[in-house]
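For reproducibility, we list the full input for the WT7 complex.
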Amino acid sequence: MTQEGADLEARLEEQEAFEPPESFVEQANVTDSGIHEEFEENWPDCWERAADLLSWDEAYDTVLDDGDAPFYEWFTGGELNASYNCLDRHVEDGAADEAAIEWIGELGETRSYTYDELLTEVNEFAATLRSLGVGEDDVVTLYMPMIPELPVAMLACARIGAPHSVVFAGFSADALATRMNSADSEYLVTCDGYYRRGDALDHISKTNEGLAGVEHEVSDVVVVDRLGDDLEHSLAANQHDYDDLVADYEGETVEPVSRDAEDMLFLMYTSGTTGQPKGVKHTTGGYLAYTAWTSRAVLDIEADDTYWCSADIGWITGHSYIVYGPLALGTTSVMYEGTPDYPEKDRLWEIVENYEVDIFYTAPTAIRAFMKWGKEYPEKHDLSSLRLLGTVGEPINPRAWKWYYKHIGNEACPIVDTWWQTETGGMMITTLPGINTMKPGSAGPPLPGIDARVVTASGEEVSAGEAGYVTVDKPWPGMLRTLYNNDERFINEYWQEYSDEETDEWVYFPEDGAKVDDDGYITILGRVDDVINVSGHRLGTMEIESAVVGVDGIAEAAVVGGDHEVKGEAVYVYAIPEDGYDADAELEERAIEGVLDSIGPIAKPEEVLFTPELPKTRSGKIMRRLLEDIASGNELGNTSTLRNPEVVDDIAAQVEDD
Ligand code: WT7
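The corresponding predicted structure, in tokenized form, follows.
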């Protein structure tokens, strides 16, 4: 390294604050530093700024209706259609030939959809769904990987007012069945398979296995043929080939259905404390306004940008920031089917260069992998088209932040570290890239209009430097409205902790721990419930535990997250074999299979450790903290409060052996 290079590294290493680059500020969508105050003063009417980004069929009469809190309603009386907002209006405004989606297949094929072409496909598939009998408010499950038919199906559902429920393609057959059962979903769109690192994966067998577990009658299944001759498969009587069906509706148009602002746009299942996933309900007006607004203010998206979020559409990040937010703004959204290291570790940078990507949004786990692979991969490519970088999903360590800033952004792109959740619909805590100083490792202040605080267990705001819990005191348009068919659980999960029902003061509790500094910047410390974050994916330890305990020969199990260099956290299983079973490799294999079958490869345990007992307190509670420390290789604290302190040494010794 040259002296100059070394000096630069050293400076970056120590620097704790970064100003937004001047070149960025000059062109930023939001540059008015008074925006936080302005939103505070005009709350909740400030949110009209978000609603104004949309085209309404019927104007709303009320910005916020808090009459039945915490069942808040936004933009009530208003009517709109999400697919119209993401497609037709851009075509009508002269952007028919602008690219809407640039899709890149793993094997190198590409498909480019202009707004006009995407609208045509969405119209045809909307007509197809209708012909199958899908009506307004029927939940359509989409069990699909990153192929263009996924956003097409989402927007087709939105067009006819049928909420979609996307199930991440990596989830297991069981997970599909659980979600279809919970949503009473009678329609499914899926595919025969897809490619991963060049291999053709069978998805239809997994789909069929899942369908066997659906308790109600499934009317129709539409199957996209992604693999052609690479996979032989047959279709059951109620299963139809996507292309065959759509061929009958070529050129058909479907009038977008005017939906009430509060009508459901989609359901998204996410993990919680108990074994049962939660069906988070998002609505048409508030969600779309909020994702459009945050896409504009935080990601700085403009219509003529090429924007790329590398998430999977099967998660909320892809819903909000590959599909709805970016398309509502009429930009070009890049969609990549494959993995970042296939065929080579420079795949993403090759795409950035080829498509002249302006804005790139990814997860810290990916950045840590890029760091590990080395700077030579991005250095092979011209990344000078980039203007803004973003991260989401988990805390980013300052070292990874600085690497991203230097080696991907060339110190010329601001980084937004965006904290939010499936439930919040869109970003909540982040710097505004044209205004706020960036502090690596800290997400930043709450967005304008977002009343997030860090409080003690009893709800008092913590002083700077102290740790506490994140709460949000005021509602926001993108918030979940309830858990599907389960208002009671909605209240219990999110509102019980800090609200005062007597005085009708409702406080949202996201179940994250955090610290705040003198400037009001919030550093997220991680979940405080039994949810772990593996590579930016949220997994319930209880879900994994019940999968392990469901395995023959396992009596009891505890699942915790342990630190992992690339994944952030990894899954560690501690299990007690049943009498008569050996704690051997076969049992371990079956425990892992159990997790793969009930959830999927994302939840694959890093290690399964057998132990005759789990460390328990005198009152019989499993000491998870301790197990986490063992998994993470941390110093173990005081174990004297345990009923059975001797098991700790036993387990720790096993970990060292491995
Ligand atoms: C949990 C939500 C938001 C889309 C992806 C994950 C963690 C999210 C950050 C961030 C630190 C973060 C939180 C949150 N998280 N973003 N920028 N810094 N932690 O959505 O699956 O609903 O998970 O992800 O712990 O509660 P999700």
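The domain at 1-55+64-77+289-480+493-528 is CATH 3.40.50.12780 (Rossmann fold). The pocket of WT7 is lined by residues 270, 316-317, 392-395, 417-422, 443, 510, 512, 524, 526-527, 533, 538 (CB under 6 Å). Both points were considered when choosing residues for closer inspection.
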